Structure to design on (197 residues):
């Protein structure tokens, strides 16, 4: 029980804090609303726990043997985040948006976890810190993934609904544009620690 409580506190605190997933889902909520952003939301909530399972059950060993593989993914992740920041910054306010722009799909959001530096740090850090070699590693990793799955819905949901709420406040197109630029800057700032490292 202590193990579950410790993992849950870690999962809650890391999932609710600002990061690429939360910034993007908030921007999506503001620009597209709850219904259109729901697949993106589910992609985060399901994609990250699946990533924890994959890392916990084998990819971690592979990356220790081939560190360049991990570095390559990190570089791709940073480049993709910067590209997403550019897209968010230049996206038009919701009234001007047509069929040319769309929120992330479920699969795009789930696959995004593999390019998200914060997700990598959370997944590898959790598996390293909360698993014990002498116990059943599979059961531990599955339990950790379940805890993240449960924590994700309220934590990521808060950011989605905050974005939807902001849409009601930021009715002027100039405010919406300023919000999108702010979210893009937050995405860039979230990448800086990875680049410095």
């Amino acid at each position: 029980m202590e193990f579950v409580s410790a993992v849950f506190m870690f999962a809650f605190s890391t999932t609710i804090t600002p990061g690429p997933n939360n910034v993007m889902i908030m921007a999506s909520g503001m620009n597209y609303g709850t219904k259109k952003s729901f697949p993106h939301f589910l992609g985060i909530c399901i994609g990250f726990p699946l990533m924890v399972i994959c890392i916990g059950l084998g990819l971690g060993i592979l990356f220790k043997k081939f560190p360049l593989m991990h570095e390559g993914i990190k570089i791709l992740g940073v480049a993709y985040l910067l590209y997403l920041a550019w897209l968010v910054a230049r996206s038009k306010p919701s009234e001007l948006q047509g069929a040319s722009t769309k929120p992330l799909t479920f699969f795009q959001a789930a696959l995004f976890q593999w390019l998200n530096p914060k997700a990598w740090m959370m997944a590898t850090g959790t598996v390293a810190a909360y698993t014990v070699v002498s116990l059943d590693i599979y059961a531990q990793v599955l339990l950790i993934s379940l805890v993240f799955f449960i924590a994700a819905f309220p934590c990521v949901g808060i950011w989605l609904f905050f974005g939807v709420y902001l849409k009601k406040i930021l009715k002027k197109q100039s405010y919406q544009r300023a919000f999108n630029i702010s979210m893009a800057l937050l995405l860039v700032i979230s990448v800086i620690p990875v680049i410095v490292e």
